[in-house]
Automatic annotation (TrEMBL):
InterPro entries linked: PRib_PP_synth_CS, Pribosyltran_N, PRTase-like, PRTase_dom, Rib-P_diPkinase
SMART domains named in the record: Pribosyltran_N
PANTHER family named in the record: RIBOSE-PHOSPHATE DIPHOSPHOKINASE FAMILY MEMBER, RIBOSE-PHOSPHATE PYROPHOSPHOKINASE 1, CHLOROPLASTIC
Pfam family, one: Pribosyltran_N
Organism, scientific name: Snuella lapsa
Entry keywords, A to Z: ATP-binding, Kinase, Magnesium, Metal-binding, Nucleotide biosynthesis, Nucleotide-binding, Transferase
EC top class named in words: transferase
Protein name per UniProt: ribose-phosphate diphosphokinase
Length: 313
């Protein structure tokens, strides 16, 4: 029997409404109608204000903390399941809680695994996300996961800068694979930062493995939280003779004193996507939209076409 392609509808959680509108426009449609009722104690209830019976729906929402963002995604999925949607694809531009992907000390949770199970239990039949903190998180799901790479967005921008003596750097040992992938695409050298932490978000010591003197350096990471690592690395590289230091971070969490650190650092610019809305503007932060990438993949998923080209770093 021929495959029957049902109608596709796109909805967005409140924290990703702006990005959702961009994705829907690029997809060639408009966002579906959802209203959210809120009780006086903070409890909320999303409601689809149109029929989704028998349709494929895409629910767009990053699950960055606080917990309300994840809870809203779960409620949206559950409501869609109970409204008889045929396929429910959770589109998570940023998959939150991903740094807790293993037990790095006794008596701690593996939150990334828990979140994966919660999404599936709620009723998600497919996951689309971008630049997971660790690629292996895909294995926490029993449903199909389309893991996209932000390099598709960042590489054309980097190439347009025509930077001489370009060197790609990883801010830590764990990001070396990502740095090597960028370096291969750009034909550049690689530098690795070795850091030791006193505790979460606090660096006690940092050293460089590689030469940055006379180089234009691009730091590459999946996310930027407090910006402590990036700004410390940028300042250290400039002290070691780098000509300039830029940073590429897919997900701009930018919590705490991050904006202040950026302004005071020697980092020339921080290049991010709009997977998470910025809490404030900064002249050092350049935002490249991921809307076209997600819309293209969603179109291909809906029409049962290959998306393997989007998996290339």
């Amino acid at each position: 029997m021929p495959i029957v392609i049902t109608e596709a509808k796109i909805f967005a959680c409140s924290q990703s409404k702006v990005l959702g509108e961009k994705i829907a426009e690029s997809f060639g449609t408009s966002l579906g109608n959802v209203i959210t009722s809120t009780y006086s104690d903070g409890e909320f209830q999303p409601s689809y204000e149109e029929s989704i019976r028998g349709t494929r729906i895409f629910i767009i929402g990053s699950t960055n903390p606080g917990p309300g963002n994840l809870m809203e995604m779960l409620l949206m999925i559950d409501a869609a399941k109970r409204a008889s949607a045929r396929h429910i694809t959770a589109v998570l531009p940023y998959f939150g809680w991903a740094r807790q992907d293993r037990k790095d000390k006794p008596r701690v949770p593996i939150a990334a695994k828990l979140v994966a199970k919660m999404l599936e239990t709620a009723g998600a039949t497919r996951i689309i996300t971008m630049d997971l903190h660790a690629d292996q998180i895909q294995g926490f799901f029993e449903k199909p996961v389309d893991h996209l790479y932000g390099s598709i967005i960042f590489l054309p921008y980097l190439q347009s800068l025509n930077l001489p003596n370009l060197t790609v750097a990883s801010p830590d040992m764990g990001g070396s694979k990502r740095a090597y992938a960028y370096a291969k695409a750009l034909g550049s050298d690689v530098v690795i930062c070795y850091k030791q932490r006193a505790k979460a978000n606090v660096i006690s010591h940092m050293e460089l493995i590689g030469e940055v003197k006379g180089k234009n350096v691009v730091l590459v990471d999946d996310m930027v939280d407090t910006a402590g690592t990036l700004t410390k690395a940028a300042d250290l590289m400039m002290e070691r003779g780098a000509l300039s230091v830029r940073a590429i971070c897919t997900h701009p969490i930018l919590s705490g004193n991050a904006y202040e650190r950026l302004e005071q650092s020697k980092l020339e610019e921080l290049i991010v996507t709009d997977s998470i809305p910025l809490s404030q503007e900064s002249k050092k932060v350049r935002v490249l939209s991921c809307a076209d990438l997600f819309a293209d993949v969603m179109q291909k998923v809906h029409n049962n076409k290959s998306i393997s080209s989007k998996f290339v770093m």
